[in-house]
Amino acid sequence: MNSSKISETKKVIQKIMNEDKPKTVKQLITKTIAVTGKEEREIYLAIQELEKDNIIKLGSQKISRELPKSVHEYLFRNKYFAVEFWTLLILISMFVLVGLLIQADSFFSFLRIIFGILFGLFIPGWTITNLIFPKLYENIDQLERVLLAVGMNIGIIIFSGLILDAIWLIDSLPFVIIISGFSLFTHLSSVIFRILLGSEIIKMRSRMFLSKLSEINIFKKRVKNDEK
Predict the structure, then answer these.
(1) How many domains does the chain have?
(2) Assigned domain for 211 exists
(3) Does pLDDT of 201 surpass 80?
(4) Which of 66, 84, 140, 200 is positioned for an S-S bond with 144, CB 3.0–4.6 A?
(5) Does residue 210 lie in a domain region?
């Protein structure tokens, strides 16, 4: 996309921001596509340039769409990712403690109900959604992420019930072990995947692999030509 096309797209984006005031990047991209007919990727790059130049600001300033590049940045410096990580880790730990230590006839049995509903409807689905869509706002906005998490969570619970019925016992203790273990695994996996994407390690590895693959193809072509 040349500079003239970029400047035209930027002008349309600024006009939409001033007149329509979209709340999310997805809404802004959709409106810009309707006006310009450009591809989503081109519009997203133009939005990024406008944000870097501090011409426009989208969403909450507390939520950064840039993925952390290191473990320290993820856990302590980036507000959104750090709060999300520690909150989920604490909830998973409390879910295990409540499920193992508090009996059904205890005075604190209401905690079992609260955490049962929370993990039965949302938390495992949220962790797997973070793994599938690691970047914020690029493919889906936060509301869509929540709805997708609830839908996926229902599927996870049903699948877990089938596994327990087949190999174990459908009871509170096995349920706590399977759901908490799955949530912790997907949560930590999403953290690792996000850091790898943010530090561009995956991109570098894929480029190295593709370059080696191209070298192998070139070598094979040369061997075939020599044989001829």
Answers:
(1) 2
(2) no
(3) no
(4) 140
(5) no
Judge if 101 and 190 occupy the same domain. Answer: yes
Q: Are residues 99 and 182 in the same domain?
A: yes
In a domain? residue 223: no
The answer to whether the CB of 38 falls within 8 A of the CB of 62 is: no
- Cα–Cα distance for residue pair 13/55, rounded to 1 Å: 11
For the four alpha carbons of 54, 60, 62 and 63, in that order, the dihedral sign comes to: negative
CA distance 40 to 45: 9
Residue 156, domain extent: 71-202
The 3 state secondary structure assigned to 98-157 is HHHHCCCCCCCHHHHHHHHHHHHHCHHHHHHHHHHCCCCCCCCCHHHHHHHHHHHHHHHH
Same domain, 41 and 78: no
Q: What is the pLDDT of residues 119-163, one digit of tens each?
A: 999 999 999 999 999 988 766 778 888 999 999 999 998 888 787
pLDDT tens digits, one per residue of 173-191: 888 888 999 999 999 999 9
Is the whole model's pTM more than 0.85, yes or no? no
